[in-house]
Design a protein that fits this description.
Elements (H helix, E strand, L loop, with lengths): L2 H27 L2 H4 L30 H17 L35 E2 L6 H9 L1 E8 L9 H12 L5 E3 L13 E11 L15 E14 L10 E10 L3 E7 L2 E7 L2 E13 L1 E6 L5 E8 L3 E8 L13 H8 L6 E5 L13 H17 L4 E5 L5 E4 L2 E4 L3 H15 L2 E3 L1 H5 L4 H7 L12 H19 L2
Parallel strand pairs: 2-12, 2-13, 13-14, 14-17
Antiparallel strand pairs: 1-17, 3-11, 4-5, 5-10, 5-11, 6-9, 6-11, 7-8, 7-10, 15-16
Helix pairs in contact: 5-11, 7-8
Length: 469
């Protein structure tokens, strides 16, 4: 073979390598996060050779609560109205030294370093302790997409029921947008139009603790089946349907024991139908168009029941308008001894360092919850650690600490209990560790099912220590 023929493959190989390198360099230069709304992250395949230029960190976006946007706009307008006229404003002197930034407040820990509950009330967990001692307690966990699909809550329920007894998943809505995502109950439904507190008008008085309700079409149904994914979920003793009927008609409840139909009279008050006996399935059917389904409760009469009430994008402030008369009626069917609030991630931004307005709104929310459920102890969970892209790396969003500080102040102001979720996860930088351990989704905001179990273990550990004091 001639020398010319031997050199020919080498030239082809060099050309292929050169083209590939050019393509990779071009891909690295594309601002993917800007073009795709941060769904695809920027990257530099030659980071070690050609370091990326410093960039302004950008946080992945969570859903925005329209109720929060309206509230903040109204608050800003009220503040501007209260300002003195331009002629009355005196120039401020420039401070000689910079105003110091508040240092992060350390979370209390036990001798083993575990983060403890911070109790700002006079009798921490008194109601919950009494209910557990009496053999029947009910817990509501209100939150956003962070606990969607019963994440965190399903494992907290399991831990509590392991110790104190109980069965079933408790509250479930009339409709789910993601059948199969929630592993603690298998749900299918048709004919329901859902409404939730983020977009309700002031004229809508159907505002319950769950924050949502379903309105039935001409023929609506919802089916719930047991799950073997967690203990205590294979069956339950009570199957209840809570509703408001604007017209007469029929509701049919079907369990493993068979169907039973009930005539329903129109009423503006809350009504409940119950099927008793061990079952692993429950079906609700109705021919009452416009019937308002407030949810089903699948549980028992003893032990601990834990209700997961999550609404994607919810900041929590919508509960400040909860209906007192409706809550009084709901309490006859499902009263609460402990209410856990998991909010804040949808009020967090990469720029804002002062969450005083949000704190003021949440104080009003907690005051309303206390008025609606006066016996319940309340725990405020601080936000989890959240990640932001800084070039090709991920680090904790710097404004997380400001939100945690505001949430701790909310607990102080309302006499509630506070749990520093972010510190329990590991503090600053925990988001990277949790992602490496496959406990966090790729958005660096939401935990997955395994992460929910780990967080529930940490929370239950702190709760148990407080209960035993």
């Amino acid at each position: 073979m001639s020398e010319k023929n031997l050199k020919e493959p080498s030239r082809h190989l060099f050309a292929v390598v050169a083209i590939a390198m050019g393509i990779l360099l071009a891909l690295s230069a594309v601002p993917w996060s800007t073009l795709t709304g941060n769904r695809v992250k920027d990257f530099n395949l030659f980071e070690d050779i050609v370091p990326s230029k410093p960039t302004t960190p950008s946080a992945p976006m969570a859903d925005i609560d329209p109720e929060l946007e309206i509230f903040l706009a109204e608050t800003e307008a009220e503040t501007l109205d209260e300002l003195p006229s331009e002629q009355q404003i005196e120039p401020e002197e420039t401070p000689e030294t910079p105003i110091p930034v508040n240092e992060p407040e350390p979370a209390p820990r036990d001798e083993d370093g575990h983060v403890l509950l911070e109790c700002y009330g006079s009798s921490p967990l008194a109601q919950f302790k009494n209910a557990l001692a009496a053999g029947a307690a009910r817990v509501a966990v209100l939150g956003d997409s962070f606990i969607e699909g019963d994440i965190f809550t399903q494992d907290l329920r399991c831990f509590l029921q392991d110790t104190y007894g109980g069965q079933g998943v408790g509250y479930v809505a009339m409709h789910t947008d993601f059948p199969g995502f929630r592993s603690s109950v298998r749900q299918s439904d048709s004919g329901w139009k859902m409404h939730d507190l983020r977009t309700l008008t002031d004229r809508d008085t159907i505002r319950t603790i769950s924050g949502e309700y379903g309105r039935a079409g001409i023929a609506a149904s919802a089916t719930y089946k047991s799950s073997a994914k967690r203990p205590h979920l294979d069956s339950w003793q009570r199957s209840r349907f809570i509703f408001i009927a604007p017209d007469s008609g029929t509701v049919t409840l079907t369990t493993d024991g068979g169907p039973a139909s009930y005539p329903v009279s129109p009423s503006g008050n809350v009504q409940a139908l119950e099927a008793t006996g061990a079952t692993g399935s429950f079906k609700v059917e109705t021919d009452i168009e416009g019937l308002i389904g407030l949810g089903v409760y699948l549980d028992g009469s003893t032990g601990v029941q834990v209700d997961c009430m999550s609404i994607r994008g919810n900041s929590g402030i919508g509960h400040r308008k909860m209906s007192l008369p409706l809550a009084m009626q709901m309490r006859t069917h499902a009263d609460y001894d402990l209410i856990v609030l998991e909010y804040g991630i949808n009020a967090l931004s990469a720029e804002q360092t002062d969450y005083t307005p949000y704190g003021a709104a949440m104080i009003r929310t907690i005051e309303r919850i206390k008025a609606c459920y006066p016996l319940a102890d309340i725990i405020i969970m601080g936000i989890a650690d959240r990640g932001t892209k800084d070039g090709s790396k991920v680090r904790s969003l710097p404004t997380c600490e400001a939100m945690v500080r505001a949430q701790r102040d909310i607990a102080r102001s309302t006499g509630c209990i506070f749990w520093d979720t972010r510190e329990a996860m590991g503090g600053d930088g925990a988001i990277v560790d949790w992602r490496k351990r496959k406990l966090m989704n790729a958005d660096y905001i939401h935990i997955n099912h395994d992460g929910g179990k780990e967080l529930a273990r940490l929370f239950h550990q702190s709760l148990t220590k407080a209960l035993n004091e």
